[in-house]
Amino acid sequence: MHGCFPNYNCAWKLYPLYYFIIFNVTMGSTIMALDSPSSSHSGHDNTLCQGIKLKFVAFDFDGTCTTKDTTGLYYKATDQYRDGPENVTQTLDKKWGELGKTYFEGHTATISKLLQETPDPIHGLNIKSLKEFLSEVYEFDSSCTKRVDDSKLLAGVTKEGIKQVSKLVELRPGCTSLLNKLDLPLHVISFNWSEDLIKNVISLKHVEVSANDFQYYNNGSRYVGRKLSSPQDKENEFIKLMQRHAEIDGLTVFIGDSIGDLLPLLKANIGIVIGNNLELRKVAAAFGIKLVPLTDFHSSCLIVGNRCQEEMTSCATRQHGKLYATNSWDEIGSLLIGPHYESDS
Q1: Domain ranges of the chain
Q2: Membrane-crossing residues (predicted)?
Q3: pLDDT digits 0-9 by tens, 77-112
Q4: In degrees rounded to 5, what are phi and psi of residue 83?
């Protein structure tokens, strides 16, 4: 997770409100790669973990695929911002900044207060307390969402506006390169307000997207249709994928970057945290979640060799509260495809 508002150093993201406010896999298969974006599927043995199979890979979007949250672009996708005179755009910028300041201060205070009330973890992962904590944070965020709705800053977002602001989104190096090489089901599970923006930015037809979306009337939006608004919603969406692929042999993967991703990260067989989100690390430590380098997974697979599938199934993330940390999509590619993996970026 990266910079949010000018002059504010946000190290995290969480729920749909955060997206209001912050600036700037059907057949299981052995892990395979595409020779090139336009080539037919051509399987390769995963030389790191011989025989490892995956059901699917699911991942967050903002802060996971992107270098920054995209929410601060949406009010700029309205006709009033795109077509208005300079004094109007300056006023809208100011209103957005004020909402952001209020939310930032309140959210920070809420997190700090709740963490102070959380007892030190003694017996490892405490999923029940974690869910209660996330629920209380969500309560605060939900109370602020109405304030943003009432501001009308997002009224009038258009499909053309979304198309234009999509061009401003910067992806993490290696993200789409890896996604284009994975020959298995891929799913975005995101709190983001626009499926259209995600699809425009990723531009890969084989990636399915589960997110929120603007409801358009007479070429403009009136409100955001909310399908995913809480960490529990995100976990439920991941569970649906598990049920959908239940008859397929293989492991599940989730990749995320913030505390809003913790529940699906813990539900997956392999939960991968990308980036240096300080808030996620604080919350993880408070609830007995271990973050270890993704290279430790590589090392484990090298040790157990062909038993990697069995080992990872028996040591699932959701059983032991262990997440794997990395700063690089290329490192994820080396795990999922093998040490021969090379990014196109």
Answers
A1: 54-337
A2: 15-34
A3: 999 999 999 999 999 999 999 998 998 899 999 999
A4: -110, -5
For 20, 148, 304, the CA distances from 73, given in Å and listed in that order, are 9, 14, 47
Residue in 307, 266, 277, 218 with CA at minimum distance from that of residue 14:
277
Q: What's the whole-model pTM score?
A: 0.84
Q: What SS3 state is found at 218?
A: coil
Q: What is the DSSP string of 102-158?
A: HHHHHHHHHHHHHHHTSPPPSSS--HHHHHHHHHHHHHHHHHHHHHHHHHTTTTTB-
Q: Reduced to 3 states, what is the DSSP secondary structure of residue 8?
A: coil
Would you state the structure tokens that stand for residue 267, as one six-digit string? 């539900």
Beta bridge pairs of residue 42: 33
CATH code of the domain occupying 54-337:
3.40.50.1000
| pLDDT class of 298 with cuts at 50, 70, 90 | low
325 — phi, psi (to 5°)?
-110, 140
CB 79 within 8 A of CB 156: yes
Contact 202, 179 (CB under 8 A): yes
- Cα separation, 183 vs 31, in Å, equals 7
Annotate 222-243 with DSSP letters as a single string. Answer: EEEE-S--SHHHHHHHHHHHHH
| pLDDT 10s digits, 221-279 | 766 777 899 999 999 999 999 999 998 888 899 999 999 999 999 999 999 999 999 99
Q: Look at residues 265, 241, 243 and name the one whose alpha carbon lies nearest to residue 324.
A: 265
β-pairing verdict for 270-274 and 251-256: parallel
The DSSP bridge pattern shows strands 33-34 and 41-42 to be antiparallel
d(CA 304, CA 285): 28
Within 8 A by CB and 6+ apart from 196, the residues are 159, 162, 163, 166, 213, 214
> What is the token pair recorded at 184?
């298995």
Q: Where are the beta strands (DSSP E) in the chain?
A: 29-30, 33-34, 41-42, 53-59, 186-189, 207-210, 213-217, 220-225, 251-256, 270-274, 290-293, 322-326
Mean pLDDT across the chain = 81
